[in-house]
Design a protein that fits this description.
Helix content is about 75%, strand content about 0%. By secondary structure, it is mainly α. Helix 2 (about 25-35) packs antiparallel against helix 3, helix 6 runs antiparallel to helix 11 (about 245-265) and helix 7 crosses helix 9 (about 185-210).
C-alpha cells in the first residue's frame, strides 16, 4: 500500500515538473486544439510547427503530433456522426489507399536533416493552401459523386506524406475537396475529420513499428490531456475567437514563418 502511494506521488511529481517546464508549449497546444476543433480540424500542422521550435528530439515530434491529432479529431468525428454529416460511401475511396500508405509513410526511417527539410516544405505548402483556400470555403453547392480513381489518388498521396511527416492530412485534403466542389462545406469538414483520424492512427502505428521509435511519454501524456480538454471545448461549443477564414490566414503566416526558419537552419 505504501509503495503504491509512493509511486503515485512520484508520478504526480514528475508530471507536475513536466507541466512547469513546458507550460508555454501546453498553453499553445490548448489554444490550437480549441481553435482547430471548432472548425473541424485536428491542428497537426500547428503542433508540428510548435514542437519543431522547442528542441524536442526530432524522432519524437511526429508521434506526439499524431497522437494529439487523434485525441482532438475523435471528438469531431463523434459529433459529425451524431449529426449524420459523415457520408462513408463517399469517404471510402479517399481512405482506401491513404490508410496503408500512411502506415508505410510512418515506417519510413529518415535522418534529422531530411526530416526537417521535408517538414519545412510540407508546412510551407500547407500554409499556401490555407491562405488561398479563403476564397473557396463558402462554396455551398453540392456536386455529383467524384471519380473513384481521382479520390483514391488524392487520398493515397496525402496519406503517405502525412504518415511520413506526422500530420493527419486534412490541411491538404480540405482545400482540394473545396476546389473540386466535392460536396457541401459541412460534409467536407466531416470528411476531413474522418480522414485525419484514420490516417493519424495508421501513421502512428507505422511509426511505432519503426525500430528507432521513441517518445517522451511524460510530456506527451500532459499534452494529450490538454488537447482533449481543448478539443472538447472547441468541438462542442463550435466557438472561436476568429472566423474560419481569419484562423486560416493567421495560422498560414505562423506556419510559413516556422517553415522558412527551419529551411534556413537546415539548408543555408
Amino acid at each position: 500500500m505504501r509503495r503504491t502511494i509512493y509511486l503515485s506521488c512520484m508520478n504526480f511529481h514528475i508530471l507536475l515538473e513536466t507541466f512547469i517546464e513546458n507550460w508555454h508549449i501546453i498553453l499553445l497546444f490548448f489554444a490550437v486544439a480549441v481553435l482547430y476543433s471548432s472548425v473541424g480540424f485536428g491542428g497537426g500542422s500547428s503542433y508540428l510547427a510548435i514542437l519543431a521550435l522547442t528542441g524536442i528530439v526530432f524522432t519524437q515530434i511526429r508521434a506526439t503530433a499524431l497522437l494529439c491529432n487523434i485525441v482532438v479529431v475523435s471528438g469531431n468525428v463523434f459529433l459529425f456522426i451524431q449529426h449524420k454529416t459523415v457520408d462513408f460511401k463517399k469517404i471510402t475511396p479517399l481512405v482506401m489507399l491513404s490508410i496503408p500508405l500512411a502506415f508505410l509513410g510512418g515506417m519510413v526511417q529518415i535522418n534529422q536533416q531530411l526530416f526537417f527539410i521535408l517538414l519545412s516544405f510540407t508546412l510551407l505548402f500547407a500554409a499556401t493552401t490555407m491562405w488561398i483556400s479563403k476564397q473557396i470555403v463558402t462554396y455551398n453547392e453540392k456536386k455529383s459523386s467524384s471519380k473513384l480513381t481521382r479520390n483514391a489518388s488524392f487520398g493515397g498521396i496525402i496519406g503517405f506524406i502525412s504518415g511520413m511527416v506526422g500530420i493527419g492530412g486534412g490541411i491538404f485534403l480540405a482545400p482540394l475537396l473545396h476546389l473540386t466542389n466535392w460536396d457541401t462545406p459541412k460534409k467536407i469538414a466531416a470528411t476531413a475529420s474522418v480522414f485525419i483520424l484514420v490516417n493519424s492512427i495508421a501513421g502512428f502505428i507505422g511509426q511505432y513499428s519503426n525500430p528507432d521509435f521513441s517518445i517522451n511519454w511524460n510530456l506527451t501524456s500532459v499534452l494529450l490531456v490538454t488537447v482533449f480538454i481543448g478539443g472538447q471545448i472547441g468541438s462542442r461549443k463550435s466557438y472561436s475567437f476568429f472566423t474560419p477564414i481569419q484562423l486560416k490566414k493567421a495560422t498560414a503566416i505562423l506556419i510559413a514563418f516556422v517553415s522558412l526558419r527551419i529551411l534556413y537552419k537546415y539548408i543555408f
